[in-house]
Amino acid sequence: MNFADEKFELIEIQRLEGHTDRVWSVAWKPGSGGNGVPALLASCSGDKTFSSFDAATAIWENVGDDFECISTLEGHENEVKSVSWNASGSLLATCGRDKSVWIWEVLSHNEFDCFSVLQGHTPDVKMVHWHPFMDILFSFSYDNTIKFKIFKAEDGDSDDWHCVQTLGESNSGHTSTVWALSFNANGDKMVSCSDDLTVKIWGADIARMQSADGNAPWTHLCTLFGYHDRTIFSVHCSREGIIASGAADDAMCLFVESEDGLVDEPFYKLLLKKEKAHDMDVNAVQWCSAENTLLASASDDGTVKIWQLTSSSGNEKLSL
Amino acid sequence: MNSGLINANPIVYGKKERRARTAPVDVDEYAAEPIDQLEIFDHIRDIKDPEHPYSLEELKVITEDAIEVDDTKSHVRVAFTPTVEHCSMATVIGLCLRVKLMRCLPPRYKVDISVAPGTHATEAAVNKQLNDKERVAAALENPNLVDMVDECLAPSYE
Question: Would you say which domain of life the source belongs to (chain B) (predicted)?
């Protein structure tokens, strides 16, 4: 896509209603959405009655032209806050407000089995995220830091997660709660967003990461500031490197790397801002991995919307 | 919870006389009236303090001037002043304010609740908690806390 010359816009192509409460997060199943495999979307919500807790994760499948709900997963004690698929689509991690992280194994098309429950590393873990191709789990939290953990199978029965790095204020990190994290297609750049109204871009040496089995330090590359005026709840990178962000100002922004940057430092610019994308806070944004121009967003208003990125020349129009 | 009150002798101020709102003439009855400072204040002035049988207005925890409203942007900011600097009820009061406004205002409204600068020992921590919607949702799942909040809000519904 030629970002510099063409004009882009986001068109809402479908609205999924079905959750009875705010929708916190959405995730596309990897490998779905292209080559005849129907796109699969997982979304999670919470039911807000004061006396009982109902935590449900729903799986939506693209059947024909529509998305249908095919399965629900129950298990967390209270609201399910976030979902993340690992690279091969064989594992799903969910993180709830009960501060535990659950790992689900995909048994068949619509059957999921709980594989593991990890208890509170850090208080108030906001979200967990897998690295795009290495099984490294990133977690970020209310304490303004990003930690990443590698799963090491020890001798005997104790498999343990070790925290190998913490990105905090001293590494040019965020100055308030980190709400979301996303990786680019190569796995060597990471984008994070926060209550401090910024989006930060981090990088790591990919070769070193692979040779050291995941253990390579991440450094701060760039900070994007001034595009949202309220807490930014979610960021996601598309395969083509478009960063989407969703915030409490009901808007979504798209950023791309700009050619005007200096040699060593990548520079990002705003591609477009979609004001009033939802009626209330946008909690999550996610690109479909197979179809580069499909974006899903979830909001406090209880809906999930599917958007299509189109350019003025009309080349990019793709059908579901 | 220990039986000692945090602030055994709060200063009680009088209640401000309620201004009667005059009905404007020649106004389209179906037009939405913009929400202003006084309306927000009316929603929260009668909230009872968690510890004492007085309203937040009477204890000057909230005042009309500490409220900022922008109806076009659907934004409300409320700053409240706890009666003592180390008041551990500050988060409860903040939660009461947030819940009341959440119930009374249209969903398009964005609400920011904070402790008035310089009035609390752990101001930053309290503010962070009050403005983190997940923390707020978590707090509201605690039935004891919810009961306390409902008790404080009861007088403000009349």
Answer: Eukaryota
